[in-house]
Amino acid sequence: MQxxxxxIISPGARLGTNVIIGPFAIIEGDTDIGHDTEIRAHAVxxxxxxxxxxxxxxxxxxxxxxPQDTGFVDCESYLHIGxxxxxxxxxxxxxxxxxNSETIVGSNCFLMSNAHVGHNSRLGDGVIIAxxxxxxxxxxxxxxxxxxxxxxxxxxxxxxxxxxxxGNSKIVQDCLPFVVTDGFPGRACGLNKVGLxxxxxxSTTMQNLKQAYRLLxxxxxxxxxxxxxxxxxxxxxxRYLSDFIRSSTRGFCHx
Length: 255
What we know:
Elements: E1 2-3, E2 8-9, E3 13-15, E4 20-21, E5 26-27, E6 31-33, E7 38-39, E8 44-45, E9 49-51, E10 56-57, E11 62-65, E12 78-81, E13 86-87, E14 92-94, E15 102-105, E16 110-111, E17 116-117, E18 122-123, E19 128-129, E20 134-135, E21 140-141, E22 146-147, E23 152-153, E24 158-159, E25 164-165, E26 170-171, E27 179-182, E28 187-191, H1 193-198, H2 203-217, H3 223-231, H4 236-247
Parallel strand pairs: 1-4, 2-5, 3-6, 4-7, 5-8, 6-9, 7-10, 8-11, 9-12, 10-13, 11-14, 12-15, 13-16, 14-17, 15-18, 16-19, 17-20, 18-21, 19-22, 20-23, 21-24, 22-25, 23-26, 25-27
Antiparallel strand pairs: 27-28
Helix pairs in contact: 2-3
């Protein structure tokens, strides 16, 4: 374990093995820092925050801060973070805004400089969030989604698995899985082919997703008729897409 002499570590902090705490970093009480995690200079891990193993928290990041909610009353709420994440300079992630509620970040995520994740949001595994993104409270970002720089996501929106959002987009509705959403406000503009290929999606599944996309956004069918046609495609990713749409409460970004 390497603890810089200028760091401030509460006696109530629980540190795993091989943890590195850099100069002027602050670790408050009621925190869990998993083994092989590195907290670099001037980073802050606030109370009620837990990190799994092998995370890297870069300079000036603040994890577990109080929510930016005018109705917040101090309480015990949480930020739970998985393993193998990178939080670059100036990242801020807030804990839940109600007693016993939580903000969750999965594993293998990469949050670039000055990205913000609001209270009670949930990030899946393998999520990438580029610089200067603002994710409001109660947002869900599913596995392997990619959020480009400068994007603003409204509270209670949902971003589907392997979705991509183009830079500086304004997101006020759900973003479809496997689809590129771009613009101000965001609009669906084709499959996320690069992301799907990188994720190892085979050509048959890719063709099935193209068929589903055409039914949903290019045909003249009603939404219900398009969903019924999509559900007839024998592919679990198409079924996942239709289930995502049926569960949406804000509606989704169209083309």
